[in-house]
């Protein structure tokens, strides 16, 4: 399929229209289904009134409509991803209605990823002969399947973890889908580009309802589903004319901020002997606010980090393997350095004042 730029315009406008029309409907439906985040349910909640978790409904219904009307860009692979992702969506929806255990949520994600793999979508790093030595086909396949589970489940949870402030996940997702769309155009993958631009339209509309003060939250159904969709689509991004030794890591750089936040929270909580799956105000956003940044500035810093490392990743894949991997090494140094600083700073870890998380 040859990319028609008129289709890009149509897709973003239709996504924008669907996101706008579905948001009030999903908000009403979420209230009817009792998909409500009540601040009284936990002392760690920083919003002050019961808020419907409607974001997942908007995303899921919008994507299903696009499939049913056979919208441009929604090819077989995209349909497979959304079909597998529906399991994650339902799992999150159940949790939004009535909290389920961590194991039950993980099981839903595991089943969804298994379905994705059975439908033929999985990472192909070792099967693509990334290593300088040859692995047997079986070993290469097993390693790639293991990485697929880690990537899809890990990124799904990263989006769920970082959903700690109104509008944050949607704004970071907008950056990711724009750059993934540009990459898809560059790699001559028009269907992915069209799907990403459609999703961008929906996210722009949703940001009006999800920005501070939020009319609705994404909820687990929204953040997990969005993370699943983007992680799976990133697997399909394939710069076929470029050396894999220069391109294997660029999806990681697209999702720098969500992945960093998840690693920061999980390892910090483990180090401090706190249950890593419990909600708390120790995310990257909260720590930046404690360091003196306003809510707006903290979010802007995270967005700029996401843009910078994503663009660097796109540049790196066009470099010789040695240069590309040096750039990735610099990324890792920044990743680890930021982790150490935010985890060790007494001011960033002071949890006494929560009022700093409100306002501009």
How would you explain this protein's 3D organization?
The chain has 360 residues and is mainly alpha-helical. Helix content is 67%, strand content 1%. It has helices at 5-32, 55-68, 76-97, 102-118, 137-161, 168-186, 190-210, 219-236, 244-247, 250-254, 256-271, 284-290, 295-316, 321-344; strands at residues 36-37, 51-52. Strands 1-2 form a two-stranded antiparallel ribbon. Helix 2 runs antiparallel to helix 7. The longest helix is centred in the N-terminal third of the chain and has 28 residues, at 5-32. Mean pLDDT is 87; it is low at 354-360.
Give a topology summary.
Layout: H1 5-32, E1 36-37, E2 51-52, H2 55-68, H3 76-97, H4 102-118, H5 137-161, H6 168-186, H7 190-210, H8 219-236, H9 244-247, H10 250-254, H11 256-271, H12 284-290, H13 295-316, H14 321-344
Antiparallel strand pairs: 1-2
Helix pairs in contact: 1-2, 1-7, 2-3, 2-7, 2-8, 3-4, 3-8, 4-5, 5-8, 5-11, 6-7, 6-8, 6-13, 11-14, 12-13, 13-14
Quick structural overview:
The protein has 360 residues and is an all-alpha fold. It contains 14 helices and 2 strands, in the order H-E-E-H-H-H-H-H-H-H-H-H-H-H-H-H. It has helices at residues 5-32, 55-68, 76-97, 102-118, 137-161, 168-186, 190-210, 219-236, 244-247, 250-254, 256-271, 284-290, 295-316, 321-344; strands at residues 36-37, 51-52.
């Amino acid at each position: 399929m040859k990319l028609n730029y008129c289709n890009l315009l149509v897709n973003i406008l239709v996504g924008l229209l669907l996101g706008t029309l579905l948001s009030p409907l999903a908000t009403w439906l979420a209230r009817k289904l009792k998909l409500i985040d009540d601040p009284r349910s936990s002392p760690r909640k920083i919003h002050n009134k019961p808020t419907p978790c409607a974001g997942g409904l908007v995303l899921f219904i919008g994507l299903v409509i696009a499939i049913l009307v056979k919208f441009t860009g929604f090819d077989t692979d995209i349909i497979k991803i959304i079909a597998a992702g529906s399991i994650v969506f339902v799992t999150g929806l159940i949790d939004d209605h009535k909290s389920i255990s961590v194991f039950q949520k993980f099981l839903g994600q595991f089943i969804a990823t298994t379905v994705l793999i059975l439908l033929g979508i999985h990472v192909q790093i070792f099967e693509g002969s990334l290593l300088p030595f040859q692995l047997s086909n079986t070993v290469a396949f097993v390693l790639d399947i293991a990485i697929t589970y880690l990537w899809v489940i890990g990124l799904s949870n990263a989006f769920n973890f970082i959903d700690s402030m109104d509008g944050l996940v949607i704004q970071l997702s907008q950056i990711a889908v724009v750059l993934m769309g540009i990459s898809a155009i560059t790699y001559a993958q028009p269907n992915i580009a069209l799907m990403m631009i459609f999703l961008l339209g929906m996210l722009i509309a949703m940001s009006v309802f999800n920005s501070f003060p939020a009319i609705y939250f994404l909820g687990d159904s929204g953040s997990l589903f969005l993370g699943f969709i983007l992680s799976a689509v990133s697997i399909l991004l394939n710069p076929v004319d470029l050396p894999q030794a220069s391109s294997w890591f660029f999806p990681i750089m697209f999702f720098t901020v969500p992945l960093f936040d998840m690693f920061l929270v999980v390892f910090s909580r483990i180090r401090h002997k706190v249950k890593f799956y419990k909600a708390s105000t120790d995310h990257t956003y909260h720590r930046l606010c404690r360091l003196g940044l306003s809510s707006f500035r903290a979010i802007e810093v995270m967005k700029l980090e996401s843009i910078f490392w994503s663009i660097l990743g796109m540049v790196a894949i066009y470099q010789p393997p040695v240069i590309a991997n040096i750039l990735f090494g610099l990324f890792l140094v920044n990743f680890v350095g930021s982790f150490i600083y935010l985890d060790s700073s007494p001011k960033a870890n002071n949890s006494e004042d929560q009022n700093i998380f409100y306002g501009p």
